[in-house]
Amino acid sequence: MSGSRSDSSHLPVMVTEVVEHLVTRPDGVYLDLTAGAGGHLRAFAEKSAGQARLYGLDRDQAAAAQATRNLRDLDQFRMIACSSYNRVDEVVGQFDDQTFDGILLDLGLSSTQLDDPGRGFSFRFDGPLDMRFDTESGGETAADLINRLSDGSLAEIIFKFGEERMAARLARAIVRERQKEMILTTARLSEIVRHTIRPPHQNKSLARVFQALRIAVNRELEQLSEVLPKVVALLNPDGRLAVISYHSLEDRIVKRFIQRQVKGCICPDGLAVCICGVKPSLKQITRRVLTPGAAEIESNPRSRSAKLRVAEKIG
Ligand SMILES: C[S@@+](CC[C@H](N)C(=O)[O-])C[C@H]1O[C@@H](n2cnc3c(N)ncnc32)[C@H](O)[C@@H]1O
What we know:
Layout: H1 15-22, E1 29-32, H2 39-47, E2 53-58, H3 61-71, E3 77-82, H4 88-91, E4 100-106, H5 111-114, H6 142-148, H7 151-162, H8 167-180, H9 186-196, H10 202-217, H11 220-234, E5 235-245, H12 248-263, E6 282-284, H13 294-299, E7 307-313
Parallel strand pairs: 1-2, 1-4, 2-3, 4-5
Antiparallel strand pairs: 5-7, 6-7
Helix pairs in contact: 1-2, 7-8, 7-10, 8-9, 11-12
């Protein structure tokens, strides 16, 4: 793993398993739609030969620049584009290659982002309640949502994306407190959560509230649903898709998408003969979901919730 570490603050997750299942051709063309610090791409370079070509995408300008810096010494490296992955079909026009032998989605956020107080992703530091991956988009920040949405909408976000049972109580507390003064910092939001939830559950609730807001701010689940069919269209025959998710809602979207593509036919149950003509477009490569081993979890605790699924485009 140390050979694949391209940045001191973000370790690529399940890198051995991803490389083993995704990099099947030494001269292949590979794309990480979530380039981050470029750790997975560097590992792809280590597995492949000089003729392989590597591309990346990241929605975060700072991450795209960092990945470019970290990878530019590699012969196989081509470019990192700065964009959301749900626009990948447009973005590949900038690349010398438009189809790929392997595409990775390593969802969520990097340690570099989590540990930067200025990004507002973590309740462990004080900073502005921002949480946008793309800080130049002009889109709404977490503070905008917290101070604008009704308590019903806030409760829905916290319950649905954070799976937090106390969502309604937390949303009421947020709305009550923002009437006194706008909630603009991670420290202020954390204080409200700590006043609402009793120990020993406070840290779990804080993590869930912050995760829920991040998912809502970045429309993460919609973007994931949008990108998956685009990825299949961009794969060469026998090309592979690998997705690492860190949240049950993400993993459910990936699992169901792969199941539908493996099945193909969309006829109603009970028909004796298929009339839709939809053929399978993927086959499963990993029969079951893969998770990190104990050694990886010990050396990189942030990998503990990772789930990896791999599928192959039918040639
Ligand atoms: C877990 S990190 C990826 C780490 C990377 N694979 C590595 O080896 O360093 C996730 C990255 O995905 C990016 N990201 C999140 N949502 C995105 C989106 N919709 N489009 C493109 N990049 C996105 C984040 O900015 C972050 O840098």
